[in-house]
Amino acid sequence: MSVAVEDLLRELAPQVLGTLVRRHGAFDQCEDAVQEALLAAAVQWPGEGVPRNPRGWLLTVATRRLTDQWRSDRARRDREAAVALRESLADEEGPGEDRPGDRDDTLTLLFLCCHPALTPSSQVALTLRAVGGLGTAQIARAFLVPEATMAQRISRAKQRIRAAGARFAPPPPDERDERLRAVLQVLYLIFNEGYTASSGPDLQRADLTAEAIRLARAVHGLLPGDGEVTGLLALMLLTDARRPARTGRDGLLVPLTEQDRTRWDAASIAEGTGLITDALTWSPPGPYQVQAAIAAVHAEAARPEDTDWPQILGLYRLLSHLAPNPVVTLNEAVALAMVHGPRAGLDLLRTLDGDERLSEHHRLAAVRAHLLEQAGDTDAARDAYREAARGTTSLPEQRYLEARIARLDGEDHDGNDDANP
């Protein structure tokens, strides 16, 4: 299947599923029917050509699959009659056509996939399948789990939605902001898993970052006046722009301060910077906007030594006020060290000792090792690097941390290395 056909199917999947659920209800059965229609298109379109109305084609095939499914279930004969009536009315407007009443239900579908009854992992899986149009096998490969495990996760998610009595409709006004934050968080989780894989042999999975950006674009297209939606898209673009420079020829991770910035994607930087610069002129700053602003400051520096660290430190302090969490504090400690010296950064890190949210995360040890190395405490830095290497399940990160240990073992620290793990 060509890339163009695959991209078209991913774009159309949420539109077709949204229309089908809005007409007939039964999200789980509609989702299965759409997956069958996508599979049929993937088989037929490369050889026979893309139909004149691909959305209508998918909608017709999925509706037939859904009707066949209900016809085979004698206990749902009354439902079959209702479907037949709806279809007869729809056929008066022409089968398989896009009709004026059909609208883009992508956002409503995202709200449903990110229902609060679901766990974050289930929200991510269901979003990738229902809105992203990915097959179960693709999602399983992306998260390094068996296909059967991912199939069970998706099935349980659909069962939970049904048990919760969730309706295919926008959330009530008093719940909308919270539900939108959940949607943005799920998209950011997908992006982060693609940008820095939490486990396995690869540092990054470009298919996941690309899908997260595509979905963020879709939400931004529907909500262009939401500052945080704009901020998230800008953040993804500015962060993903660094991807070509994040690994060296040997496959090892290259930290931000050592990357060849000529390899950064200039078009993504320009788009992301434009989005966040504009958004901050009309929207009160939110966490995603502030993170995007930080990424933009990094992108503006042609060389690491040109980075405006005082501005970045001020932005991290604002972010700590808007959305306090230990990961923000970790990054603030690095910025603080760049402005006021490594000992100041280490002092801030001590406030995280004993924080249960970081008890099983290697990042605290990695940042501490980096600052200890900057401070010239080689022995303590070596111990912290070893702790971080033991704690990560990402093989590229583990190799990078072990390389730092070998470097400390092989030579005296000369004070000129400012790597930022």
UniProtKB/TrEMBL annotation:
<feature type="domain" description="DUF6596">
    <location>
        <begin position="179"/>
        <end position="279"/>
    </location>
</feature>
<dbReference type="InterPro" id="IPR036388">
    <property type="entry name" value="WH-like_DNA-bd_sf"/>
</dbReference>
<keyword id="KW-0804">Transcription</keyword>
<dbReference type="InterPro" id="IPR013249">
    <property type="entry name" value="RNA_pol_sigma70_r4_t2"/>
</dbReference>
<comment type="similarity">
    <text>Belongs to the sigma-70 factor family. ECF subfamily.</text>
</comment>
<dbReference type="InterPro" id="IPR013324">
    <property type="entry name" value="RNA_pol_sigma_r3/r4-like"/>
</dbReference>
<dbReference type="Pfam" id="PF04542">
    <property type="entry name" value="Sigma70_r2"/>
</dbReference>
<keyword id="KW-0805">Transcription regulation</keyword>
<dbReference type="InterPro" id="IPR013325">
    <property type="entry name" value="RNA_pol_sigma_r2"/>
</dbReference>
<keyword id="KW-0731">Sigma factor</keyword>
<dbReference type="InterPro" id="IPR007627">
    <property type="entry name" value="RNA_pol_sigma70_r2"/>
</dbReference>
<dbReference type="Pfam" id="PF20239">
    <property type="entry name" value="DUF6596"/>
</dbReference>
<feature type="domain" description="RNA polymerase sigma-70 region 2">
    <location>
        <begin position="8"/>
        <end position="74"/>
    </location>
</feature>
<dbReference type="Pfam" id="PF08281">
    <property type="entry name" value="Sigma70_r4_2"/>
</dbReference>
<dbReference type="InterPro" id="IPR046531">
    <property type="entry name" value="DUF6596"/>
</dbReference>
<protein>
    <submittedName>
        <fullName>Sigma factor-like helix-turn-helix DNA-binding protein</fullName>
    </submittedName>
</protein>
<feature type="domain" description="RNA polymerase sigma factor 70 region 4 type 2">
    <location>
        <begin position="110"/>
        <end position="161"/>
    </location>
</feature>
